[in-house]
Amino acid sequence: MVDLVAKRYVKAIMIDSDNKSLTTMFNELNTISNAFLSDKFTSIIKSTDITVDAKVDLMLSFLKRSSKKTTNLIKLLGEKKRLDIIPDIVNILENELAVLNNSYTGIIHTNVKLSAQEVTKLNKQFSAKFDVTLKLTQNVCKYDGIKVDIDGLGIEVGFSKDRLKAQLIEHILKAV
Q: Which helix (H) or strand (E) holds 105?
């Protein structure tokens, strides 16, 4: 439900904005959105004892200079008691900017650290394959294989040792 409301706000933002102003607004809202990672900040925003104006002023205080559009959006969200959807707006706005700029981010999941050259090589290959500007980051985890996940494009490419073993066993059993 919150996602649908956030999409409406993003749609309204995008109607009357160019790429530069969208990027500025995204950066400003992202700064505020990072504050939602703090439990204290979240409890302040959800508190009924604190006035809406104080909450809006607190959010605007995180920005050195805010654009008029960002200030008006935060004030509007405050009036509608929807300040808590700012992180959702940021996520949707980030996806929309990625589509507009044809620039995406992805994550390489693997259990060993890849060298910078290997990451660069994967980055170039995926960028060429999908004709996009791509920035891959690495996540060293317990995944036994390698998986590249590009969220904005909805692409997940992976190779798992466990899956290879299972397919090999299945192939041998079919052959017998």
A: strand 103-110
